[in-house]
Write a structure and sequence with these properties.
Helix 6 (123-136) links the parallel strand 4 and strand 5 (137-147). The longest helix has 14 residues, at 123-136. This protein has helices at residues 13-20, 22-28, 32-44, 62-67, 80-89, 123-136, 186-196; strands spanning 50-54, 72-77, 94-97, 109-115, 137-147, 166-174, 177-184, 199-208, 219-227. The protein is built from 7 helices and 9 strands, in the order αααβαβαββαβββαββ. The chain has a 7-stranded mixed beta sheet, with helices on both faces. A two-stranded antiparallel sheet has the order 6-7. The chain is α/β, with parallel strands linked by helices.
Amino acid sequence: MASTMPARTEVPSDELFNELGQDYEDAFAHDAGLLDIIQHLLELLPPQANVLDCGSGTGKPVAYTISNSGHRLHGIDVAQNMVDLARKKVPNATFEKASMLEYKPTNLLDGVIAMFSLFQLTRKDITSMAHKWYGWLQPGGLLLLGIIAAEDCNLDSKVFDSDGKCATGVQTWFMKRPISVTLFTKAGWNDLLEDMGFELLHTKISAFAPPPNSGAAQETHYFIIARKP
């Protein structure tokens, strides 16, 4: 995620990921840190777990790996193109076009995943999602997040909120497109989840280098697995 100020109007998330489609998978699906953390989650999930993937993209590698490991996965995404691709690529899972901000699962879940799908939400909306995730999970349920921490992006101190835990309205480029993002610090994420009642089980920092022709920048990824007691 580049930190240069965009010269064009930012692209909203549904438009952005409808445009990216397969290009997004080509750029990020080989992320070794992501593949490792999925395996870690699989070791913790109960058999035939019900898992929701918030921002499921093309379905690979997250939905593909989890659904092919004997679990029931449902994915939601704001981009219809992503939903269409996921349905073709991952027939063992189900997908629908929906915003995580408005979605309501019909049953309590064993697992919720949000993998690099929160950047274009506001701090208020991310805080609201943390509250919703807790409510969607049954006791013992697991939350897996993939994010980029603010301190790993060389940001100006002026973009941070007064508590220093979150940078808001950060203007940047993503795969050659201008966007505005919200980035919590690692401590900000940990505090947010613990304040909601989650128990942090595992965190992982992983460097990622996308293919040179992808238009994506090198990134440092931060993964969190938390549990609802």
